[in-house]
């Protein structure tokens, strides 16, 4: 670990997150606090990708897992975001917890999760959400609301008995971070910003404090 700022962390206060040297441990601490205090979807995050014309796209998704490997979320792989990440396997995430006055930004590479992990998560979803994954041709033109409801009814009947299998086009993706930035509000807009960077997903982290 290399320190890029000239400040001393040897006597930091208990709420000074810059004392942490490992970003995943710090993220899990912040996420746990958000789960305790954020009233709505503490795992909601903005996911940014780039389309074939080089234009950015951003939308909200739900974080479904985090470990030292990366940040996991699930989606229809034939959706716009699925197509974009298949063509350019890189993305950015942003989680903002208004009640905590904190934000985390992540940038990195995309890889698929294993089939067993995807199957396990799909099996844990509510049955209606499982049916919805089959019925929705996500991101493609929909002629009417009735067409969607008709598709839901068709797959509800098809899978009336037994477990609903995971669609072959529905799975999980993992963002392998190359950069994780933590932002914490401070008075007079003199916020704390610390960014962790590494050259590749298996490399060591370098930490830098940034001007707010």
Q: What percent of the residues sit in helical stretches (DSSP H or I)? A: 25-40%
Helical segment tally?
5
What's the CATH topology name?
Pnp Oxidase, Chain A
- Supply the CATH superfamily name: Electron Transport, Fmn-binding Protein, Chain A
How many strands?
10
Whole-angstrom Rg: 20 Å
Name of the CATH architecture: Roll
Portion in beta strands:
25-35%
Dominant shape: elongated
For the largest beta-sheet, the strand count, sense and barrel status come to:
10 strands, mixed
Oligomeric composition of the shown chains = single chain
Feature tags:
single chain; 212 residues; alpha+beta; Pnp Oxidase, Chain A
Explain this structure to me?
With 212 residues, the protein is an alpha+beta fold. It has a single domain, classed as Pnp Oxidase, Chain A (Roll), CATH 2.30.110. Helices cover 26% and strands 33% of the residues. The chain has helices at residues 23-37, 80-87, 115-124, 127-135, 145-158; strands at residues 2-3, 44-50, 56-62, 65-67, 70-76, 90-97, 102-112, 170-184, 192-197, 206-210. Strands 1, 2, 3, 4, 5, 6, 7, 8, 9 and 10 form a ten-stranded mixed sheet that branches. Strand 6 and strand 7 form a beta hairpin. Helix 4 packs across helix 5 (145-158).
What is the strand and helix layout of this fold?
Elements (H helix, E strand, L loop, with lengths): L1 E2 L19 H15 L6 E7 L5 E7 L2 E3 L2 E7 L3 H8 L2 E8 L4 E11 L2 H10 L2 H9 L9 H14 L11 E15 L7 E6 L8 E5 L2
Parallel strand pairs: 1-10
Antiparallel strand pairs: 2-3, 2-6, 4-5, 5-8, 6-7, 7-8, 8-9, 9-10
Helix pairs in contact: 4-5
């Amino acid at each position: 670990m290399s320190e890029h700022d000239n400040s001393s962390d040897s006597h930091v206060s208990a709420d000074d997150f810059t004392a942490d040297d490992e970003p995943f441990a710090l993220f899990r601490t912040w996420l746990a606090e958000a789960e305790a205090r954020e009233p709505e979807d503490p795992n909601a995050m903005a996911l940014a990708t780039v389309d074939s014309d080089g234009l950015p796209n951003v939308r909200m998704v739900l974080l479904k897992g985090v470990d030292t490997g990366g940040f996991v979320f699930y989606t229809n792989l034939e959706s716009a975001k699925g197509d974009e990440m298949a063509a350019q396997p890189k993305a950015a995430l942003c989680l903002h917890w208004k009640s905590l006055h904190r934000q985390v930004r992540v940038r990195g590479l995309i890889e698929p999760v294993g089939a067993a992990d995807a199957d396990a998560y799909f099996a844990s979803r509510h049955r209606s959400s499982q049916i919805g994954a089959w019925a929705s041709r996500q991101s493609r033109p929909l002629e009417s609301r009735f067409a969607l409801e008709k598709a839901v009814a068709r797959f509800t009947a098809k899978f009336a008995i037994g477990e609903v299998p995971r669609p072959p086009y529905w799975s999980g993706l993992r963002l392998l971070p190359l950069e994780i930035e933590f932002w914490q509000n401070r008075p007079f807009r003199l916020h704390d910003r610390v960014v962790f960077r590494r050259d590749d997903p298996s490399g060591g982290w370098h930490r830098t404090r940034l001007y707010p």
